[in-house]
Write a structure and sequence with these properties.
386 residues; alpha/beta; Aspartate Aminotransferase, domain 1; Aspartate Aminotransferase, domain 2; 2 domains; seven-stranded mixed β-sheet; four-stranded antiparallel β-sheet; 14 helices; 13 strands; 40% helix; globular; binds 4'-deoxy-4'-aminopyridoxal-5'-phosphate; binds glutamine
Amino acid sequence: MPHFARPIPSRLPGVGTTIFSLMSRLAQDCGAINLSQGFPDYAAPEALLDAVARHMRAGANQYAPMAGALPLREAIAAKVAALYGADYDVDSEITVTAGATQAIFSAIACMVRPGDEVVVFEPVYDSYVPGIRLNGGTPVAARLSFPGYRPDWDDVRRLITPRTRMIMLNSPHNPTGSVWEATDLCQLEALVRDTNIVVVGDEVYEHMVYDGRRHESLARYPALAERSFIVSSFGKTYHATGWKVAYCLAPRELMAEFRKVHQFVAFCVNTPCQLGLADFMKARPDWYAELGRFYQRKRDFFRDLMATTRFELLPCDGTYFQCVRYTGISDEPDCRLAERLTREIGVASIPVSAFYRDGADNRVLRFCFAKNEETLTRAVERLGKL
Ligand code: PMP
Ligand code: GLN
């Protein structure tokens, strides 16, 4: 330990290493099948890999513009217009970011001041609360109901105060796989009307909604879009989570503030991936619908297998995560069971209590089904022994 005159207090006391790092590490150490951290075990499309390599070899290896490579911003604008009927200006309302994580952090940092309150929904994705705290804000949690994981709008209304600066939502929802409906967006719209509240919409799983549902993007609702930062991630959409390329949409005034932060947090994002993504998006506008069908088949495959075990399947309307209740198998806390399954059965999952600030434990584990059928089959063979 270096010798400081006084101990340096942590900016994030009580925060350790993320559950995703812990479980992936444990899976690796134990040689377990890793259905914990969310990432596919199949490759990004060949044509996308080729396009990125082509740009890299052609010399597109220096800084991209701060807001993102122009062809990619054009492709994003075209996509959002086609899917949600929303018109975002390529120059002033779209920014390419180093993953959704950086977009979310930058949106918080540019809006939240000390003393501001930010409403989040628990179970809450792990980066939101530390992002709020680091910027001096106070997280205020609304709970999604259990086991349906629906928002309770009366509850949310009660949490709103004159200090509420922001509401952060995530649909399709990690970790629960729940999907907000049009009525939820209407409730939200009524709640923020005539306030100064801004909204962050984490829509990284936008193309993974099932059974004929429609993704209710904030971009579809002009009265919400005018006060929203909307975030999506190419990592999810193109099976390339390791590239960490994502984007944020916001109206001009909000985006101007966002870029003041973005330019000093990341400045810009790697150039060849941006140009390759732009080429692929232009060539394959059909990709999004196909991706939804692809993941619905995976969900059904995994659910059919899991139905033969003693785990109880919770609904999964979107994302590539399936939550299960295990009260019929064990009364252990979820963290302990997740660890034991990794060590003893050889299958890693995520304990859902990690997404609650007070560690609320409904005895639920999250499994990532973004895996080859062979991987899923082997995993469920092991889980079936319980
Ligand atoms: N939000 C949610 C809900 C996520 O699940 C993830 C990552 N899996 C992120 C944000 C971060 O995305 P990225 O990897 O693009 O930073
Ligand atoms: N979002 C991914 C998940 O939920 C993990 C991302 C990360 O490891 N930070 O599994």
